């Protein structure tokens, strides 16, 4: 770990030859140098005032420069400051300069900031000294002074903390005056400005240095800014058309540079360099004009700065830049000349500029100019520098910055696979071979008049090459490099390749590729059009087919396969970061139609390496997210891969991100893939439970890393919970969607036949129930609890025969017979499983009572129906009231266990719907509001918003994703970090500092979601039940309240009990707080996530609800008052980019503010604040894409 | 932007550092992260062997010459390959200033010159000069072309 910064720098401060008896400060300088074999001394000395004073007194006074022996060499900051002050006023400039350059300035540079008290001395030296070395240091320190003054004390440089108090004190004692930064900065600016305006040719190096130092001044000041602009434009007015350096023949035939042109070139460079640092003035034509002129600058760094400025301007004012550069380009071909410049970043900016301009619509009418930009961009693919080549590939692929759209990326892939590079006609001079003759100076690109050797034969004209072939060759070559950065860069580009291909598949319907028509000679402009046309065909529904290598012609698939093989070999690199990038690239290159085993094998192998940092693993998880977003049909494959992470390195991955992946994949896998997606999630359940210590030969052996085991257990818990919550969604099975009564015949079947019938009717749900049953028996105690809760959730939500199947199972389980019956052979993990064998009896009891109540109610209802039918009696109001009471009571009971849509859910069976509605209509009862039970009113029902009744959307597709307000604090709320991480990753952001491993573990290993979910909910629930003095678990669940209290005592009802009681407390204490904030404090019970969209009330519904509320008791009124607030429009924010798939849908950009109007079947109807690019302002977007 | 250039000795003591655009509170994390990389990789590294790392969208390239480890951290246009250019410029200048692969002592002796070179190579978080001859001229306040 880093020690005190600059600890070793003490050596420098005390650079006198130390006496032999002082081993801490060995001699420095020419006298004696340590042998290279001697290991460097650990210098972890802290600079303390005591130490400093001891240094001052103990260090001898001899200097290596032959200065008077009596004079002490400066060893402390105050000494340095004093010496600077003295030497700046010294009459003997030569000696003073030596001392300053060798003794004072290097030591002052060690300190983290430049004290303003030094400024007067520095300014004096600036005026008086003629020594260039001294002056260079002076400019350096003045620039630092200015930079620090602009950064509110944030020092860009590190080093020892500057003890300015020391200097100030000493200087004051010496009669000096205290100077502040605010005082000296204007003086420095004035002095530097004067020098930067000095047009004396001989002094132009000083002028350039002064201008550079001045550019460090804080540009928040308009005065400074205008001064800088004035100086820069003043210089450029005179030298911007300097052109190239003129050379002339000197003595003995040697060439020398014309001084005048050199001067102009130097000044132009300095001005352009400063211009780049100044704020971009995009509306200023002079700014653009000078920047474009700079492209023809003789100085390569000046060209780079000019291109950088122009490329940035092009993103803001494309039309003006396109016209200006086109004019320049046509006039003198300066852009082509940049290809020869020996400056990598200049060519990088050239690639960017050419990419932007080649897409400029404003140049559509000037195809010759546009094609010139395209040609240059393509030529940069052959650049000898990997950096430039990769930038050009990125640009071709549509990867420019993080803001590019999927359409851009898809176009990029089309362009790459269809465009052909036609090499420009070589001029009279021979051209070098591109692949072999790539010189270091970058002057040997295709079509560029080379300065090459004359002994080469004139090359034959090169055949046009498919772009993709060039790119693949280049990437493969880079992947064989021994340089790690090159490897890393290459696999990153492969990743980008995969992203563009995925976009093309998603948007354009491309599957993979076509045969490259190598013989076509098409100019680049035509190629672009070709790509567009093909894209248009594809949009109209044409789907391309994969074609492999065909008789002598190389297919894209073949090339890609070869490239992927290259990436695979890269995973053998010893650098874990390169391997991580390679795996990401492989994930992006994975086709949904190809086997994934090889990738899984690679990842499995990598995960076995304990050296992988958690951050890198989570990056790969985020890559899975991004891949899913690009290719939703890969949901199952990606889940399969994510399973590897969940099982191999559960302690290192971020469970928030993993759960978010599960959810998004389940939603995104479509109707056909839901089953597979659910199965892929639940494979986690097949893992053996974490093994505790085992005794081997009398010694305890640790079978697994305890942290990993705990993390794995949490993941299993999460998977079980997920399964229970989403099984019905995945299976498309909801009790309230069934219009017919449970089949009596089916009910009469015995258990085995019933299971078989259930499996045949809905294998997804049957499979989920079976898995949950296994977990309820064989998992760890924590898992068993969740499995029981998940089962009762499924039972409540499902129709028959699933409900009765679960009922029977739970009943058997409660009696302790199931374990032996069902699995028997499972090894125990040593836990006390209670009398029932599972430890769940008391937890299951209240669940069974709820189901009992439902069945009893149904029986009674059937009897009443028959009685009325036989007697041919009408249902009286009293009869209906009794029926409605039972309905409501049962509804309240089940609502305590999981979310069900109150207006649709019929605990007495579908046949009760008519009578219940009759009663409701007669008594004008809001179907969604429930009855006036205060416990319900303060507990669950205020989660529900009456507004949803009339819209028929009352249950979310996936409860976690629905984002109702209660949910915000529970699963979704806890997943917010995951959402944020995914968003940040998708945007390519994330420059925050890496955390320490220890803190990283703290962040990632304990699952926030499940800590909250289990620790808080379970424990709080128990506590709250005790506080309330609730009845025991054996109390009769005759009323909602007693059931609630009973359930709080046991895990089966822990959620709901704790939940409801906390709600009551909150309700009392925070009655006036907003509904939203109240809900945010709610527990994490699984039912809370299910109320998606309920808050999106139509005003009509709220009106009726409010009118009803006036007749209710006070708690109800309070809740309704809360719902008044909900009449306000709901606002949300787009979480991801979303591309509309139809007319009704609306494009979204991540971060966009939205007004949510209502929700329909997992879609929000939203309104943007302003129309998007497509002109649409309102439309449907998936619920999952909106946070609110 | 070049976020950071850091020089340490082989034992992880920071000798020289320049940060750009990084909040002060993040610097310690970066320092720790970089030094950890040193301890993991550089002990047996050959001179001039270039290493790469990444953290989110930030790239890190580092190498060791003599007793000195040099790190460059960048983002956006300064990816791993652009940072190699930075690193090459820095190592070339350090070698030129020290006239050989520097020992820690030699590096400290030339500390001032190294600072001046760094000032010419990186300016406000952007790469300026890469050519060692140009850097040498500028540190001596000589014109670039004459």
Automatic annotation (TrEMBL), chain A:
InterPro entries: ARM-type_fold, SH3-like_dom_sf, SH3_domain, TSET_member_tstB
UniProt KW keywords: SH3 domain
SH3 domain ranges (all copies): 1127-1188
Pfam families named among the record's database cross-references: SH3_1
PROSITE patterns: SH3 (PS50002)
Biased composition (Low complexity): 1033-1043
Composition bias type Acidic residues, residue spans: 994-1003
Record region (Disordered): 1-47, 425-467, 523-544, 956-1130
Record field: compositional bias (Polar residues): 967-977, 1099-1109
Protein name: SH3 domain-containing protein
Organism the protein comes from: Ceratodon purpureus (Fire moss)
UniProtKB/TrEMBL annotation, chain B:
Keywords in alphabetical order: Cytoplasm, Cytoplasmic vesicle, ER-Golgi transport, Golgi apparatus, Membrane, Protein transport, Transport
GO cellular component, one term: Golgi membrane
Membrane topology designation: Peripheral membrane protein
Residue span(s) of domain AP complex mu/sigma subunit: 1-136
GO terms, biological process: intra-Golgi vesicle-mediated transport; intracellular protein transport; retrograde vesicle-mediated transport, Golgi to endoplasmic reticulum
Cellular localization per UniProt: Cytoplasm; Golgi apparatus membrane; Cytoplasmic vesicle, COPI-coated vesicle membrane
InterPro entries named among the record's database cross-references: AP_mu_sigma_su (IPR022775), Coatomer_zeta (IPR039652), Longin-like_dom_sf (IPR011012)
Chief location bin: cytoplasm
Recorded family membership: Belongs to the adaptor complexes small subunit family.
Self-association and partners: Oligomeric complex that consists of at least the alpha, beta, beta', gamma, delta, epsilon and zeta subunits.
Purpose of the protein: The zeta subunit may be involved in regulating the coat assembly and, hence, the rate of biosynthetic protein transport due to its association-dissociation properties with the coatomer complex.
Name of the protein this chain belongs to: Coatomer subunit zeta
């Amino acid at each position: 770990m880093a020690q005190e910064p600059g600890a070793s720098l003490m050596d420098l401060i005390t650079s006198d030859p130390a006496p032999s008896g002082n081993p801490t400060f060995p001699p420095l300088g020419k006298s004696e140098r340590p042998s290279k074999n001697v290991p460097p001394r650990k210098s972890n000395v802290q600079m303390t005032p005591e130490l400093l004073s001891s240094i001052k007194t103990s260090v001898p006074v001899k200097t290596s420069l032959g200065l008077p022996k009596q004079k002490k060499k400066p060893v402390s900051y105050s000494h340095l400051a004093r010496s600077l002050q003295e030497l700046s006023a010294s009459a003997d400039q030569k000696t003073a300069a030596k001392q300053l350059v060798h003794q004072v300035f290097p030591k002052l540079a060690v300190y983290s900031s430049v004290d303003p008290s030094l400024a007067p001395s520095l300014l004096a030296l600036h005026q008086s000294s003629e020594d260039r070395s001294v002056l260079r240091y002076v400019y350096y320190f003045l620039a630092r002074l200015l930079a620090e003054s602009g950064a509110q004390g944030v020092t860009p440089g590190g080093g020892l903390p500057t003890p300015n108090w020391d200097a100030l004190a000493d200087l004051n004692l010496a009669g000096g005056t205290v100077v502040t930064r605010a005082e000296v900065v204007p003086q420095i600016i004035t002095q530097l400005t004067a020098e930067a305006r000095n047009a004396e040719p001989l002094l132009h190096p000083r002028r350039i240095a002064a201008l550079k130092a001045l550019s460090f001044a804080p540009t928040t000041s308009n005065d400074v800014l205008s001064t800088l602009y004035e100086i820069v434009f003043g210089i450029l007015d005179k030298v911007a058309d300097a052109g190239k350096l003129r050379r002339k023949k000197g003595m003995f035939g040697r060439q020398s540079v014309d001084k005048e042109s050199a001067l102009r070139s130097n000044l132009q460079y300095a001005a352009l360099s400063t211009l780049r640092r100044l704020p971009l003035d995009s509306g200023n034509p002079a700014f653009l004009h000078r920047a474009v002129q700079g492209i023809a600058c003789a100085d390569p760094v000046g060209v780079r700065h000019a291109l950088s400025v122009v490329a940035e301007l092009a993103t803001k004012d494309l039309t003006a830049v396109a016209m200006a550069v086109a004019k320049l380009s046509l006039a003198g071909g300066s852009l082509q000349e940049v290809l020869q410049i020996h400056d990598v970043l200049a060519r990088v900016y050239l690639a960017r500029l050419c990419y932007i301009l080649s897409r400029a619509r404003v140049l559509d009418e000037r195809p010759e100019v546009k094609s010139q930009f395209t040609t240059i961009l393509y030529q940069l693919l052959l650049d000898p520098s990997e950096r430039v080549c990769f930038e050009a590939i990125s640009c071709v692929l549509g990867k420019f910055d993080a803001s590019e759209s999927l359409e851009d990326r898809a176009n990029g892939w089309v362009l790459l696979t269809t465009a052909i590079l036609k090499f420009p006609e070589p001029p009279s001079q021979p051209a070098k071979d591109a692949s072999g003759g790539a010189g270091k100076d970058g002057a040997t690109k295709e079509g560029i008049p080379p300065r090459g050797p004359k002994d080469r034969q004139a090359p034959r004209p090169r055949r046009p090459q498919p772009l993709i072939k060039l790119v693949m060759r280049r990437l493969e070559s880079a992947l064989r490099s021994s340089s790690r950065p090159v490897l890393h860069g290459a696999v990153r580009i492969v990743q980008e390749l995969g992203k563009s291909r995925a976009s093309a598949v998603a948007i354009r319907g491309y599957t993979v590729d076509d045969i490259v028509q190598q013989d076509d000679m098409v100019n680049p402009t035509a190629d672009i059009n070709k790509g567009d046309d093909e894209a248009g065909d594809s949009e109209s529904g044409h789907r391309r087919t994969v074609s492999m290598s065909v008789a002598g012609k190389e297919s894209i698939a073949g090339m890609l396969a070869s490239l992927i093989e290259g990436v695979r070999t890269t995973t053998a690199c010893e650098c874990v970061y390169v391997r991580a990038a390679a795996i990401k690239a492989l994930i992006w290159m994975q086709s949904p139609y190809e086997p994934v085993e090889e990738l899984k094998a690679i990842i499995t192998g990598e995960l076995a390496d304990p050296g992988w940092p958690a951050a890198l693993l989570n990056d790969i998880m985020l890559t899975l997210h991004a891949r899913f977003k690009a290719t939703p049909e890969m949901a199952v494959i990606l889940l399969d891969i994510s399973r590897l992470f969940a099982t191999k390195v559960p302690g290192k991955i971020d469970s928030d991100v993993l759960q978010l992946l599960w959810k998004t994949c389940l939603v995104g896998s479509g109707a056909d893939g839901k089953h597979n997606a659910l199965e892929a999630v639940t494979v986690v359940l097949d893992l053996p439970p974490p093994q505790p210590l085992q005794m081997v030969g009398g010694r305890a052996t640790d079978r697994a890393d305890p942290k990993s085991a705990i993390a794995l257990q949490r993941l299993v818990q999460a998977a079980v919970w997920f399964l229970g919550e989403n099984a019905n969604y995945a299976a498309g099975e909801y009790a309230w969607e069934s219009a017919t009564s449970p089949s009596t015949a089916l009910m009469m079947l015995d258990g085995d036949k019933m299971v078989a019938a259930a499996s045949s009717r809905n294998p997804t749900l049957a499979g989920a129930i079976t898995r949950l049953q296994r977990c309820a028996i064989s998992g760890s105690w924590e898992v068993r609890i969740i499995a029981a809760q998940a089962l009762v959730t499924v039972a409540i939500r499902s129709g028959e025969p699933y409900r009765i199947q679960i009922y029977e199972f739970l009943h058997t389980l409660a009696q302790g017979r199931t374990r032996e019956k069902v699995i028997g052979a499972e090894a125990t993990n040593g836990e006390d499983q209670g009398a029932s064998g599972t430890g769940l009896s008391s937890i299951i009891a209240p669940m069974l009572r709820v189901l009992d109540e439902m069945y009893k109610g149904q029986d009674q209802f059937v009897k009443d129906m028959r009685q009325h039918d036989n007697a041919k009696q009408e249902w009286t109001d009293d009869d209906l009231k009794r029926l409605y009471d039972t309905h409501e009571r049962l509804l309240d009971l089940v609502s305590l266990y999981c979310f069900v849509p109150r207006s649709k859910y019929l605990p007495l069976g579908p046949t009760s719907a008519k009578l219940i509605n009759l009663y409701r209509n007669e008594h004008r009862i809001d179907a969604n509001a429930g009855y006036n039970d205060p416990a319900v009113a303060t507990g669950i029902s205020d989660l529900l918003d009456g507004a949803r009744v009339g819209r028929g959307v009352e249950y979310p597709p996936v409860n976690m994703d629905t984002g109702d307000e209660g949910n915000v604090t529970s699963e979704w709320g806890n997943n917010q970090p995951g959402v944020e991480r995914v968003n940040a990753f998708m945007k390519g952001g994330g420059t925050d500092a890496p955390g320490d491993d220890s803190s990283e573990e703290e962040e990632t290993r304990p699952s926030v979601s499940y800590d909250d979910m289990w620790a808080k909910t379970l424990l709080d629930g128990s506590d709250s039940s005790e506080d309330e003095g609730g009845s025991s678990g054996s109390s009769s669940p005759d009323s909602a309240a007693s059931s609630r209290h009973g359930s709080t005592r046991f895990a089966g009802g822990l959620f709901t009990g704790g939940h409801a009681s906390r709600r009551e407390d909150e309700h009392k204490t925070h009655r006036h707080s907003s509904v939203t904030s109240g809900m945010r404090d709610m527990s994490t019970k699984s039912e809370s996530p299910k109320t998606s969209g309920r808050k999106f009330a139509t005003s009509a519904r709220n009106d009726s609800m409010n009118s009803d509320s006036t007749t209710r008791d006070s708690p109800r009124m309070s809740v309704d008052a809360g719902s008044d607030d909900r009449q306000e429009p709901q606002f949300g924010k787009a979480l991801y980019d979303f591309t509309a798939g139809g007319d009704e849908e609306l494009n979204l950009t991540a971060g966009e503010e939205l007004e949510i109007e209502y929700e329909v079947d997992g879609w929000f109807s939203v309104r943007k604040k302003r129309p998007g690019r497509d002109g649409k302002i309102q439309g449907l977007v998936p619920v999952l894409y909106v946070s609110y | 932007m070049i976020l950071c250039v850091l020089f340490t000795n082989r034992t992880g003591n920071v000798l020289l550092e320049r940060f750009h655009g990084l909040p002060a509170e993040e610097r310690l994390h970066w320092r720790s992260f970089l030094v950890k990389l040193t301890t993991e990789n550089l002990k047996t590294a050959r001179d001039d062997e270039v290493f790469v790392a990444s953290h989110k969208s930030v790239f890190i390239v580092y190498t060791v010459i003599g007793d000195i480890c040099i790190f460059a951290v960048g983002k956006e246009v300064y990816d791993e390959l652009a940072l190699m250019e930075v690193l090459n410029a820095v190592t070339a200048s350090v070698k030129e200033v020290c006239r050989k692969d520097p020992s820690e002592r030699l590096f400290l002796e030339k500390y001032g010159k190294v600072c001046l070179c760094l000032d010419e190579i990186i300016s406000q978080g952007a790469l300026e000069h890469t050519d060692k001859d140009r850097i040498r001229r500028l540190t001596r306040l000589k014109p670039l072309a004459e």
